[in-house]
Amino acid sequence: MTAVKTTPGSIIRWSLAIGGLAALLAVIAGAFGAHGLRGVVTERALSVFETAVSYQMYHALALIVTALMPALGLKRRLLAVASGFWVAGIVLFSGSLYLLVLSGTHWLGPVTPVGGVCFMVGWALLIAAALKRERR
After folding, report:
1. Is the pTM of this model over 0.70?
2. Nearest CA-CA partner of 52 in 7, 100, 6
3. Planar angle of CA 17, 19, 76, nearest 5 degrees
4. Where are the alpha helices (DSSP H) in 32-134?
5. Which one of 18, 27, 36, 119 is CB 3.0 to 4.6 Å from 32, fit for a cystine?
């Protein structure tokens, strides 16, 4: 078995792939919510599901754009860590909301804010990357 190369550059490439996958899944989830859940769950639950889809798509797009930012001279390591926090946010925030709506399991509620914090940390790291240029 070979080791996976995990340089900041390879992580940035992965953020493009994961961002594309997350966007695809957000479109699928949005269609499922609009067509499969309407009339099955309450309007409040549908609104929660739509929030999960929206936040997933926002952060999928952020991952895709971040993959292009090293060309601007932004620090790859900070971009890579920001991407990791956004992926964690998608899983924790959107994932917990999806499960909450689909399963009715309310113990997942406390997980959602952790995902929200991950989103915020990712954005703060993007700001730091914008202010601290890569040394060449």
Report:
1. yes
2. 100
3. 80
4. 43-68, 76-89, 95-103, 111-131
5. 36
